[in-house]
Specification:
heterodimer; A: alpha/beta; Rossmann fold; Transcription Regulator spoIIAA; five-stranded parallel β-sheet; 40% helix; 18% strand; B: alpha+beta; Chemotaxis protein chec; seven-stranded antiparallel β-sheet
Chain lengths: 389, 177
């Protein structure tokens, strides 16, 4: 549930700063310009926290606080004073009425967030339904590793992605980096000296900015004790050395809930192209299959009725691929989409060697498949439709 | 309760310097340097014939209680815009598009924070008082004309190459002569 924070201040500037301060967090900021408005908004919206100024026209903060505490429906709303009115006596007299905190202006945004987060469980804003991040979006990846060769592996292995890799060699550099800008994901090598990898993990989790950032442990494959410890302490995922970059990408996508459909589905003019990669493992096929129905529906919505599955990079055939094609064919038939399949010669030969897939029609190039679909010579009857997996 | 003898001009000045420095550093990311009152400043006795009219934005906030008075902070309009931009994270073009209101509001809030910090120092020294709401006025060649029963302290500060003038008017009976 989205938290609601009500700022009651006669200064639009302060209200704007509050709005800006909490922009990175999933909370709704409500505004009021004086105590009367504040009570009205509080009664209507039941906010999770009120940030209350003292000196305001119409009704000041002390009177608003007094009335709030006298109202059984509003008295339990936590109130934090945010005011230029400091001084021991002022603070003590207001504290007696019942407040959860007192911030004297001027304030630093970090201090404000830290104090508010003691009352409201602030969570970073998540992208809305229309703003789902994809595997092809830029991502800031912080890698904390004291071995330059491993950092180089990250840079080389992920250079085909738009991801930005920041390599740092120590706990201190990592904290410094995170204070300047919050990475989207952090990889910490457990081979850092002493206990500093786990200490860094705890520091990052205690910091509100990185509290919810996925953190991976990087560890040698055979060091099972360290892996178990990392899992126990709460690392988001374990990446083992030597690093399998495809596996790392997949883990990053999963941890960040990235839309990976662009790996497999693209539009090419009037065609929906389904690309299956060279290493077409079952996890890869499962990932592609989850997008199949929505992507085909999107194609229909866009007025397209032609699709091609490109198997030409695939090295060898296995049952998972056959299942995927059957699933795609059935979905296409339901949506009246004409489907063609492109394969390389050895793969086509493998298909032809099985009784169930012998009759399937393949094209040896994308151009041939497209031409066939456009001319309408590709018959739906050629497509696979009766394989019992 | 402490006597007002404790509040010498030096104490008042140091308290104001502390307040201004803290607010400018925290909210605006700017440093402030107190200027020697004898050094010539742009606001010191300007000759209307020699100096073109500079639009000034003046924020004022009063305090009342064991001590009573008002503080005016005088900014050149261009510096007021710079401060507003720093405070709200807006660039010059964005500020120009928004007009005068955000600048007035920001200067009001800056003055409120400075006077609040100044007054909180007085409170902790045994002179509890409260703040009034801020007011902001604009104009060229703005001057403050205190009545005779009021003590006046004027201090000049430099920040980012601009002059800020702070005028403190306090009820004479509250302070030692």
């Amino acid at each position: 549930m989205r938290h609601k924070i009500l700022t009651v201040d006669d200064s639009k500037t302060v209200r704007l700063i509050i709005r800006k301060t909490f922009k990175p967090f999933d909370c709704e900021i409500l505004e009021a310009g004086n105590g009367v408005e504040g009570l009205s908004v509080a009664a209507k919206t039941q906010p999770d926290l009120i940030l209350l100024d003292v000196t305001m026209p119409v009704m000041d903060g002390v009177e608003m606080l007094t009335r709030l505490k006298a109202d059984p429906k509003l008295r339990n709303i936590p109130v934090m004073m945010l005011t230029a009115e400091g001084g021991r006596d002022n603070v003590l007299s207001i504290a007696k009425i019942g407040i959860r905190g007192y911030i004297v202006k001027p304030f630093k945004e970090d201090a404000m967030i830290e104090k508010v987060s003691r009352i409201v469980d602030l969570k970073p804003v998540s992208d809305g339904p229309g703003k789902v991040r994809t595997i092809l979006d830029p991502i800031d990846l912080l890698v904390v590793e004291d071995k330059p060769a491993i950092l180089q592996q990250f840079e080389q292995g992920l250079k085909h992605t738009p991801w930005k890799i920041h390599g740092v060699a120590s706990q201190g550099e990592a904290i410094d980096h995170c204070s300047r800008s919050t990475p989207d994901l952090i990889v910490i090598s457990l081979s850092l000296s002493g206990d500093s990898a786990f200490a860094l993990f705890r520091i990052l989790r205690a910091n509100l900015k990185t509290k919810f950032t996925p953190i991976f442990a990087l560890v040698v494959k055979t060091e099972t004790d360290a892996q178990a410890q990392a899992q126990k302490i709460g690392f988001t995922a374990i990446v083992t050395k030597p690093i399998d970059m495809a596996d790392l990408e997949s883990k990053v996508a999963k941890a960040m809930n990235l839309d990976t459909s662009k790996h497999y589905f693209r539009s090419d003019g009037e065609f929906l192209i389904v690309d299956l990669p060279q290493n077409c493992s079952n996890p890869v096929l499962a990932e592609a299959a989850q997008y199949l129905a929505p992507k085909l529906a999107e194609a229909v919505d866009a007025g397209h009725s032609l699709a091609v599955i490109d198997l030409s990079p695939v090295r060898s055939l296995h049952l998972g691929i056959i299942k995927f094609i059957v699933q795609a064919t059935q979905s296409c038939r339901e949506l009246t989409i004409h489907l063609a399949i492109v394969g390389n010669a050895p793969l086509i030969a493998e298909f032809k060697s099985f009784e169930e897939t012998r009759s399937w029609n393949f094209h040896e190039s994308m151009e041939e498949a497209k031409a066939s679909l456009k001319q309408g010579t590709h018959s739906a009857a050629d497509a696979p439709h009766a394989v019992e997996a | 309760m402490p006597t007002t003898e404790a509040l010498s001009e030096t104490v008042v000045r140091d308290d104001l310097i502390r307040a201004l420095t803290s607010v400018f550093a925290t909210s605006l990311g700017l440093s402030v340097v107190h200027q020697d009152p004898k050094a010539p400043g742009r606001f010191a006795a300007p000759s209307p014939a020699a100096v073109p009219a500079i639009t000034q934005v003046v924020g004022s906030v009063g305090f009342f209680g064991e001590l009573n008075g008002v503080i005016y902070l005088c900014f050149e309009e261009v510096f007021a815009r710079l401060c507003t931009g720093n405070m709200l994270g807006l660039d010059a073009a964005e500020l120009l598009a928004t007009g005068e209101e955000p600048v007035n509001d920001a200067i009001g809030e800056i003055t409120n924070m400075v006077v609040g910090a100044f007054k909180n120092g007085l409170c902790d020294a045994g002179f509890p008082c409260k703040l009034t709401i801020p007011t902001v006025l604009r104009g060229s060649n703005v001057s403050i004309g205190p009545i005779s029963s009021v003590r006046r302290h004027t201090f000049g500060f430099e920040s980012a190459g601009h002059l800020i003038v702070a005028d403190i008017l306090m009820k004479a009976g509250d302070l030692p002569s």
